[in-house]
């Protein structure tokens, strides 16, 4: 995957990484966001209806090996699983098509995003970094983050969306947020957004239940769960109707939109040498595969650059 040549995009990407470092401290062998994670391997099996949506190789084949990374939010490698800032949780999926050939889905556990562009995200992070969150609110002297949220209703809605902690990474739903362009064998194009739902059903904890848990309860539970049997998810795609906005992550599509099933993944084993593999793997929000293209959502190109720059930094740490 090449780095883009657009100077403005590169500068913004570097500024965003720097801003994460400012907020969470520098931990160069870890991700500046979603730092605490773990990986499992398994298999993707497409559904019968998937080929009507896309001619992508993993949908045409009988099955494809996958590698999945679950993560907590924040750039803190030791963030307790019980910390409210550990939500949204992340789920990144790599479909291994052949040696050095793959396509990814990067998703998180809230159906939405606070801003439409990377510039706005940088503004949000800067406002957050310069606000004393512990201080009481003073309407006569609002904090930078309060001013930002006051002028950005989608960001306010995102902040106010309840984000209850799951009982398990395997009992949470994850959302792709940015729309993709799916193209089938007849050339029919449909826009859609991923939704990844657990076969075991969603289960969230109330505050008292979270308080009774340990700092690694999700990671411990996942080890036990996968040792007992496959951890399975359905990968769904919510389809846009004609006229729906497909290039803005802050805009939800109505719930009556058709949902098709792309297939299921069954995770069966932890990745061997988990820490090393996490340091090495760089997920790509752009699919880069025939049959699934990025939409014009500006977050996609930006994130692809951010994750690549950040991932190269992480890899260079391990080489030292
Ligand atoms: C302007 C928008 C965004 C910025 C600047 C941003 C920034 C980052 C950064 C710096 C990382 C670490 C990447 C690495 O070192 O490999 C990361 C990882 C991640 N982000 Fe984002 N992000 C953005 C939007 C999103 C959105 C919309 C989602 C949800 C779909 C998301 C979900 C994730 C997940 C799940 C990971 C962990 C991936 C992994 O396991 O490697 N991010 N993000």
Automatic annotation (TrEMBL):
Enzyme class per UniProt: oxidoreductase
One MF term in the entry's GO annotations: metal ion binding
Keyword terms of this UniProt record: Heme, Iron, Metal-binding, Oxidoreductase, Peroxidase
EC assignment: 1.11.1.-
A GO biological process held by the record: hydrogen peroxide catabolic process
Cofactor(s) needed for function: heme
InterPro entries registered for this protein in UniProt: Catalase, Catalase_core, Catalase_sf, Catalase_SrpA-type_pred
GO cellular component: cytoplasm
Residue numbers annotated as active site: 34
CDD domains associated with the record: srpA_like
Limits of the Catalase core domain: 1-320
Family under the similarity heading: Belongs to the catalase family.
Protein's job: Has an organic peroxide-dependent peroxidase activity.
Cited PANTHER family: CATALASE (PTHR11465), CATALASE T (PTHR11465:SF62)
Name listed for the protein in its UniProt record: Catalase-related peroxidase
């Amino acid at each position: 995957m090449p780095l883009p040549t657009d100077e403005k995009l590169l500068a913004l990407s570097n500024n965003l990484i720097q801003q994460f470092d400012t907020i969470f401290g520098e931990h160069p062998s870890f991700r500046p966001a979603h730092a605490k994670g773990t990986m499992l391997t398994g298999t993707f099996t497409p559904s019968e209806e998937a080929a009507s949506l896309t001619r992508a190789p993993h949908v045409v084949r009988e099955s494809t090996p996958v590698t999945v990374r679950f993560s907590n939010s924040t750039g803190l490698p030791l963030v307790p699983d019980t910390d409210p800032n550990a939500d949204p949780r992340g789920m990144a999926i790599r479909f291994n098509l052949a040696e050095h050939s793959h396509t990814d889905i990067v998703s998180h556990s809230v159906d939405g995003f606070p801003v439409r562009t990377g510039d706005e995200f940088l503004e949000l992070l800067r406002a957050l970094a310069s606000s004393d969150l512990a201080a009481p609110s003073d309407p006569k002297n609002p904090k930078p983050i309060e001013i930002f949220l006051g002028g950005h209703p989608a960001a306010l809605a995102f902040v106010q969306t309840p984000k209850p902690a799951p009982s398990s990474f395997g009992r949470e739903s994850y959302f792709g947020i940015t729309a993709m362009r799916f193209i089938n064998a007849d050339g029919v194009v449909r826009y859609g957004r991923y939704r990844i739902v657990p076969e075991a059903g969603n289960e969230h904890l109330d505050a008292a239940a979270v308080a009774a848990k340990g700092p690694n309860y999700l990671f411990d539970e996942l080890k036990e769960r996968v040792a007992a049997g496959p951890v399975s998810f359905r990968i769904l795609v919510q389809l846009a109707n004609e006229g729906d906005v497909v290039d803005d992550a802050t805009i939800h599509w109505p719930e009556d939109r058709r949902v098709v099933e792309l297939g299921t993944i069954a995770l069966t084993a932890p990745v061997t040498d988990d820490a090393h593999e996490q340091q090495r793997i760089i997920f790509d929000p752009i699919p880069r595969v025939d049959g699934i293209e990025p939409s014009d959502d500006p977050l996609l190109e930006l994130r692809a650059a951010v994750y690549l720059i950040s991932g190269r930094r992480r890899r260079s740490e391990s080489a030292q």
